[in-house]
Specification:
342 residues; mainly beta; 8-stranded parallel beta sheet; 27 strands; globular
Amino acid sequence: MAAYVLYFFFYFYFIFFTPTSSNSTATTNHKWVGPSGHRHITVDIYGFGDYTTVQAAVDSVSTNNQKNILIHITAGVYVEKVVVPATKPYITFEGEGRKTTVIEWHDRASDRGPDGQQLRTYQTASVTVYANYFSARNISFKNTAPAPMPGMHGWQAAAFRISGDKAYFSGCGFYGAQDTLCDDAGRHYFKECYIEGSIDFIFGNGRSMYKDCELHSIAKRFGSIAAQDRRIPDDKSGFAFVGCKVTGTGPLYVGRAMGQYSRIVYSYTYFDDVVAHGGWDDWDHTGNKSKTAYFGVYRCWGPGAAAVRGVSWARELDYESAHKFLVKSFVNGRHWIAPSDA
């Protein structure tokens, strides 16, 4: 017993009283600690909750939040622009159904912001999330910018921008036209979501998996689903579509090389007869990006599937090369996505 007490005496003396230099690794290596505690907030547009707006609920969360925050948003259309700052991780937006709980706004890239400067595409998002560990379930996000003048393809007007890491979406809807979903940066997992748009309606440099989602085109003359912005060969970003369904109007490119090393893979995906001849677009039409982009197809089907294989640089993958794009480890999901959510 005496030896046991003596051991702990020296252990605590070392921890609390031994000096360390500013360059010591002992002072810089910290074990990650997850959130502790829970807080439930209700947003109700009719005044029967804690707040009547989503932004007010987000604002009520403490800076450097360390709790799991569930913001339950009751049925209704919430016309507001919402921002979740980087200092407020672990927030969940929970709606009452994709068709009944909606957050919408109407900014477009031709508009000017409060500072008088013209908005960039990513600044138009109705909802912007900078925080890590964000999630959303059973809710829709819309950009309702008015239709453009005849002859134009559409406004650049985002419904949602996700720039935080380790974000999860389930049963959500994203509605817009050009540039609907800004999948900006970080690791993201979309499950059973509905994404609607016309041109590049999923775009950015995210490292994301889309599982069992419907990608619905409303293109009038031509359109494109995904524009991925991977710019260097060792970047791990890319879009992996697994078990998805492509519907709507065309002709439609399934992917465009926004970045020099753009990476997009479709697996087990159904394509309606809406795919443009060639299937893919190298963005600048010089043929340069076609040599460095990674566009892959694995066991896709439907009347438009043949066109997805329409260019020589779209790879027909075998199981070995496709496997890493089929499992949640593509986004390191084993560490932050519960098995029941995958």
